[in-house]
Design goal:
Elements: E1 7-8, H1 22-31, E2 36-42, H2 48-53, E3 60-71, E4 78-85, H3 92-118, H4 125-132, H5 139-148, H6 155-158, E5 175-176, H7 177-186, E6 190-193, H8 207-216, E7 220-224, H9 230-243, E8 246-249, H10 269-278, E9 285-286
This protein binds adenosine monophosphate, zinc ion and fe (iii) ion (FE) (2 copies).
Residues 10, 12, 66, 252 line the site of one fe (iii) ion.
Pfam families: PHP
GO molecular function, one term: 5'-3' DNA exonuclease activity
Protein name: Polymerase/histidinol phosphatase N-terminal domain-containing protein
Length: 288
């Protein structure tokens, strides 16, 4: 390849809390000049088949997911996100765990709605579920309900401390992060810690946990991400070098639920090759 490959390894579709359907997403990825895109919806593989079916020529699809995890070494436990690439989507234990987390998300969503309603805020759980249209429900769907009710103007505002960021923030029953790493590995997948230093989103985990996760099978760290400052990116890169973890960069594209564009951050071909080389579940897909 004469021009350096453009590789974006973290995107969301309507199978979770993005706004483009999986088919539209791969079309947009090609339109944005990407060579490789990973579809990593929260806790689901439902977007894989429609994305494969619509894959435009010249684009390679990495099938993945972003797993909702929790580290129980702090009190209260700290939530974190694990990207999982190229795992076997039929692995029974992983399938069961993803289904359990999706149910837990619905339970939490409904409890948040009840808290809002108790304060007289006119939001409806059935309308929020309809907005998610069968995809994994998340706080961005509740944010849309707050926007529809005229209470906030933007998703960012809905994640502020008066709303979903603090006052109406409830934990969900996530997967223990060590169990998640083990399940992804057992399914032939490659686990990469998503935005590990995104302190502006909430509490972050100590480097000591990342050292332990690396020993437990974690393969990489996401460094270049919208929610990392330059210093945080550098910190992640240094830690990855010390632990011999691969480093990724990604947009974490969510359509109009966020402002970041596809390909805003990218991954090196070397890191991409490492991921593909480690994977034993499914292969990258390129349309013929
Ligand atoms: P949940 O998975 O339901 O806990 O919601 C987390 C999702 O909300 C993340 O994956 C992002 O898509 C989105 N999100 C988190 N923080 C923010 C923020 N400050 N502004 C906009 N979207 C956010
Ligand atoms: Zn999201
Ligand atoms: Fe995330
Ligand atoms: Fe994400």
């Amino acid at each position: 390849m004469s021009v350096p490959a453009r590789i974006d390894l973290h995107t969301h579709s309507t199978a979770s809390d993005g706004t483009l359907g999986p088919a539209e997403l791969v079309g947009a990825a090609a339109g944005a000049g990407l060579d490789v895109v990973a579809l990593t919806d929260h806790d689901t593989t439902a977007g894989w088949a429609p994305a494969v079916a619509a894959l435009p020529p010249g684009l390679t699809l990495i099938r993945g997911a972003e797993l909702s995890c929790r580290w129980f070494g702090a009190e209260p436990a700290i939530p974190l996100h694990l990207l999982a690439y190229l795992f076997d989507p039929g692995s029974p234990e992983l399938v069961a765990e993803l289904a359990r987390v999706r149910r837990a998300r619905e339970e939490r969503g409904e409890r948040i709605v009840r808290l809002l309603q108790a304060d007289g805020i006119p939001v409806s759980w059935s309308a929020i579920l309809a907005g998610a249209a069968g995809g994994t429900v998340g706080r961005p769907h509740i944010a849309q309900a707050l926007i529809r009710a005229g209470l906030v103007a933007t998703t960012t505002e809905a994640f502020g401390p008066d709303w979903l960021g603090e006052r109406y923030r409830l934990p969900k029953d996530d997967i223990d992060v060590f169990r998640a790493v083990a399940l992804v590995r057992a399914a032939g997948g490659v686990p990469v810690f998503a935005h590990p230093r995104a302190s502006r989103r909430g509490r972050i985990v100590p480097d000591e946990l990342i050292v332990e996760l690396a020993a437990a099978g974690l393969a990489g760290l996401e460094a270049d991400h919208e929610d990392h400052s330059p210093a945080e990116r550098e910190h992640v890169r240094r830690l990855a070098a010390e632990l011999d973890l691969l480093v990724t960069g990604s947009s974490d594209f969510h359509g109009t639920h966020k402002t970041v564009r596809l390909g805003a951050h990218t991954t090196s071909p070397e890191a991409y090759e490492r991921i593909v080389g480690l994977a034993r579940g499914v292969t990258p897909v390129a349309s013929g």
